[in-house]
Records
---
Amino acid sequence: MRTRPGDAGTDARVRRTATRLADGRELIYFDDSEPYVSGGATRRLDDPRPLPDRFADVVGDDGTPRPVTAPQMRLDVLTGEWVPMAAHRMNRTHLPPADANPLAPAQPGSAYSDGEIPATDYDVVVFENRFPSLLAVPGVPDVPGELDGEQLWQVRPAAGRCEVICFSPDPGGSLAGVGTRRMRTVIEAWADRTATLGALDGVEQVFCFENRGEEIGVTLHHPHGQIYAYPYVTPRTATMLRQARAHRARTGNNLLRDVLDAELRSGRRIVAGSEHWVAYVPAAARWPVEVHLAPRRDVPDLPALTGPERDDLARLYLRVLQAGDRYFTRPAEDPRAGTPIALPYIAAWHQAPVREGREDLRLHLQLFSTLRAPGKLKYLAGSESAMGAWISDTTPERIADRYREVMSDDVTSDDDITSDGGVEERNR
């Protein structure tokens, strides 16, 4: 089997099959089950929807066709941060009924609906977002300009890429319940997309993440995540990079390496560990529930992980997710008192940028929740939102204690990883 460049460390047997949707967006199946993984069968590759090419001219109200407009981003001169303007996303799909779920597989034998995935089943699938915040439009040069002719207000095309990754064909499922083999396939997809998107012209950073729960702002309940390829280094990463460089200048050491080593020496906030990974609550955790997952070896991003590191990550990540779903239980006045509450969360993979800071920043996952108690959310009010001055509602030690209470030694699945190959790439 042929291994995709950038994934030389992979061991999981996954077949990668790429095609194009009706409007020209790319879709990629990542298969780990038979008969697809061996090539005995192929998922549906055609998309019969009557969608216009996404870069075709747009006919205005006056009947005149005009070139499609590229999304724009503007520089906030007060902070030095780029702010993409994605006004077209106001019309994106919002909490559709079950029979109109655009991320579900197509129904066997039914007329093709406006779903995004042509196949009647899939393992893991990735496709370009139909309502992207970042999009490189052919023929639109990625050059700076000025707003209203004012040199102070810089503008640029928001020329990146946004993708959706579906973790399961089950609309009622969750990433925590996919099993280790499927989680391993998800990791392969993350690594594949990080390597591929990072090689695109103008991309500076790749961000894999998952939003889960309406409290977080999720508009589609189907288990899925997103992958952003930014044309700039994001503010959070730029801040960490600045801190890491200052730390290296003072000590000669990698800041994130020193953070992990200090947490291991303390042990107070370690919630779980394995051969290749450590889960801990950071000493200055901000959120009511927050845990970080870091590799023991220094690596800049997901493609740099070896096969055994990816295997180990699949198991420990599932344990962390499943513990999160036991973190809170329903209160006594609830008719289902004592039963677990599915944790709303954001899971964010922090990776080194494509070009700068690869020796200073270190791969790690940050998983956090806005839920501070059953039925109560952490709102970002005046201090946090206006001043950026965080005030925590708990302590990292309490978070760690609770995580250890609910952390299981085993993943609640009899599924396991079969590592005997690489990623075979098939393109249509």
---
Amino acid sequence: MKLSEHYTRTSVYITLTVLVIGAVIYYFAIDYIGRQQLDRGLQQQLTEAEEYSRSNNGNPQQYDLDRDHAVFVKTGKKLLQKRFFDTTYFNPKEQRKEAGRAVEDLVKLKDNNYKIVITISRAGQKNLIELISIITLALLAGLLAVLFITNKYLLNGLWKPFQLTLKEIKQFNIADHDQFKGRPSKVDEFTELNEAIKEMSLRVTHDYLNLKQFTENASHEMMTPLAVVTTKLDTLIQDETLSAEQLAQITDIYSSVNKSSRLNQSLLLLAKLENKLITEEEPIDLEITLIEKILQFQELMQNREINFQHNLKPKHILASKYLVDILLNNLFGNAVRHNNAGGSIFVNINSNQLIIKNTGIATALNGQQIFGRFQKGKDSQGTGLGLTLVKNICQLYGYTIQYEYEPGWHKFVITF
């Protein structure tokens, strides 16, 4: 969820809560004020009723003044607490009952005590309170609608500099010459953010260039002596005067030097992949490329008596031919190298996936670790970077690769 949506939701929730609580308090306050006003009217009616009774020689009777009703009931009680209460009022004109308010008190007339109950209608006041409540709720709903529209649409422009900065960060490539610039903003926080990101990008670019230069220099300086050593070893191997033991030792040295050279090249390639320095792309027919790769490994598979099957369909991708060749070399090399003598390899390609599976050890591999650097079996003669290169190449082009184990089969699936 976006920050603006979080802000809108939070502000709406808080506003709604405050307004609902305020509306409830407002309703009860109006109701209380209305009751107090009715009670003052009832007190006045009570006084008038008492005066009316005394002016009629102490002979009380039920009377109706305006919309008010007074009832006198003779009682033996000498004390009665005056009280105001809600009740029902019978409207003689409408011939129906409606909400009312009443007062009850004790009136002394000569030697007799009378309980007087005066009732007045509060329907008009209740209707007024309901009307005020409806108007208040309508105002609350309108306020919430305005608040929502303002936060969702009108305030979007406030976040535009941030969105532009975020877009520029996503497009930022450490290898490009164009540095992060940031977009001007009237908001101090966004301006400060742009300055911080710009300063950080300059430091990162400077460190990257230094590291890149060091890596390239180190790789170049390592390759030169390795090439010299390889040349010298080639000359020694051709020496017919060497004993079998000396030849075996030189062969081991030659193998180690070649492994060091491959390791150096693999690490350099990984650095380029992680920094997205390989950008050349061209249309590739993966079906034809796979057929060529099968022919390259055919002799090696025949030497180990490996049965090969395939189901190939046309599939075109846009990628570096050099990286695709490295990817397929590592996958085919693993399928042959870690296969059983007389085992099988199956390759399938369709519009969505490339599947390469082979027979091998009867236990599953760790699907998370095998793509890590220098993860290899005890008897492996490789550098331990083959599947790491495969994973990084897939990530470069947005593909996913996963390892699956079926009974007797190890399967690698690349999803395009």
---
Amino acid sequence: MALRPGIFPTFFLSGFECSTFLWGEGVRRNLVAETGHDRHAADDYRQLSRLGIAVAREGIPWPTVDKGGSYDFAHVDPFIDAMNASKIIPIWDLCHYGYPDDLDPFSDEFVDRFARYCRAAAEYVVPRVRGPHFFTPINEITFFSFCAGEWGWAAPYHCRREDRMRLRLALCRAAIAGVKAIREVDPEARMVHVDPLVRVVAPRDRPDQIDAAHHETCVDTFMAWDIIAGREHPEFGGAPEILDIVGANVYSFGQMEYREHGPHAPLPPGDDRIAPLCDMLEMAWQRYHRPMIIGETSGLGQGRGSWLHDVMQESLAAVDRGIDLQGICLFPAVDMPDWHTGEWVHNGICDVCDEQGDLKRVPDQDYIAELRRWQKELNRVTELDVDPFSDPVELQDVIDAAKRLKMQPDKDWC
């Protein structure tokens, strides 16, 4: 019997890049195909099982399965088979930046049709995958609103701040409706609402931009979560139990210098304006007091192992402050191409090597060694047993490790 039973069967999670946006000149992207996950799903999930990871973020491609109100979920079957064979449960991403071609995201129809799709998706996957069941209705609402509403990178290709605000509201309305539809199918389903955890500072020579940078850090970062939790726009129907689990995405480029036009500039390593990740996690915890995970995190290239080391130190410092941190998602499990250049990012647990058109998986051994070190430090499994769902993760082990190690927040963590 666990003293502090966790929500998930393992503390370490992972996931697969599954974007399906309309990109650039209206080209529908499919990152599951671009990374070869569609062809290597069974091997990809076996690799996670060997690493002691029993939970993975996995996508259902709304633009592909929604046939104008009827649904074809056959595309999902190979992934369900692969997960079941490796005893891994999914957090289903139901809208990962992509929506059907015939929908206007600013319309009431978008909300209604998304809710119907969420209900249909839950009806399909719940009986086919061993529970508990987890969903992310709309991935990264805040970032989605920026890249598709203000920067014009993806559909609906808007380029104004006002449109970014409108898109965020529309996506929040849809996400809330989606949660309610899913829980009509499975009242016990858990929701993980994922968004970047960021900090924005003014340029040193632009004190006039301090207020704008502060607004992005303390208001914009949290607005989508606020709406889903019912703190803002309560007429949309949000509530704390709809927000449920806060998934905070953490990357080095999440601490930025403000730019009035276009994306902000990431702070370089060693910049004295970088804040400890522990403090940023605590800010989200104090705002919602909901269970939290780090919804995505990874380093780059040869820095992946040291990145995980720093994130673990900051996370345990946060746990020692009383933050209910339920897990850390090493994302992605398999490398992904840069959306703009197509070059491999080298941020996965495994890199890929193109061998005559087949994207062979190449594990990053330093990254895996660091994962193994922390699994042992936290008394976590290093490989899944016959029934990884028989007992929930023992969070008391994580809390005890945090108290024993007494990690201190570090401004140079990244």
---
Amino acid sequence: MAAKQLWRWQGLNDEGVCADGTLWAENRVLLLVALAQQRITPLRVRRISVKASQWRAEKTAELIYQLATLLKAGLTLSEGLALLAGQHPSGQWRALLQVLAHDLEQGIPFSRALSQWSNVFPPLYQAMIRTGELTGKLDECCFELARQQKAQQLLTEKVKKALRYPIIILTMAVLVVLAMLHFVLPEFAAIYKTFNTPLPTLTRGVMVFADFMASSGWLLALLCILLAIANTLLRRKPSWQIMCQRLLLRTPVIGRLARGQKLTQIFTILALTQSAGITFLHGLESVRETIVCPWWSQQLMQIQHEITAGHPIWLAFKNAGEFSPLCLQLVRTGEASGSLDTMLHNLARHHSENTLSLADNLAALLEPMLLVITGLIIGTLVVAMYLPIFHLGDAMSGG
């Protein structure tokens, strides 16, 4: 996909009628070959830019849902893609859907065709489509994929909405503190120096901090920039990703959200593969293909090795250490009763509902912490500024 370019063409079809459209091709020569196969005589071709905004996750999820609806209605996969290509408002998407339909006509599996467009269809899409191809339940897998992506987008929006207010308040508090340190506190300091009386310890500490920020604040800004650059460079290393994921999972509130989102994804795919008759080990392999984080990939690999060694599924999950007692209990019950697919569906639904509920309550959980933090910052600064006033009376009477 990285080598393909988007072209807009104008020409005449085999009936001599003017036509135009968009097409993906690696270069101009292959574009002309593709147009010749469609019996089109090109009159004008030009390369156009690709809009990254068209590849947003919500657009991809909406397309998969529409495709699932067409498959449920009885259309074949190639017919559904052709129909979507003819109705899609974006020329960029129309060209992509035409390429996918052409690949299907050439006998290429749908999942393999999607793998050539990994920046549009992430590994989760490819794994779910592959599962649908193996089980013959492509429409159900597409519906479940669209539902999972919609839930993920809803969770992301709720977290952003919950964090937006605290970030604004903390930013305003920092700006107020900086303004008081640089404009108000020096005036108070000049007044206090006219009196021959020692300043309280808290006031002296705040004034030392203000002097440090005035003289060496640029060092802190430079340090933050260097840390951001180092994080960008180290983020590509699996060891760094594993360490960051461990720290994230240990965070009080955000860790529960991250764990709930991953467990929802894991149990959703496992439930689909189990209900389709795929072995649990192959289901775990499908889950691993959708997981980008090396930490969770390691956990799933450990579970695979223990199951291969003969351990029960619930014990392998327990040894991983990232699954709650409820997960272990339901997996153990499903394994013993032969209804593992039902228990996995219940676990996926449970974690999805709990994660969304936690995201709804995130603002209520953060507001008390926000009040305490802003109160301590502003209160400490105000007390430090006005505390010497109580000593001015003694200094004046003594003078």
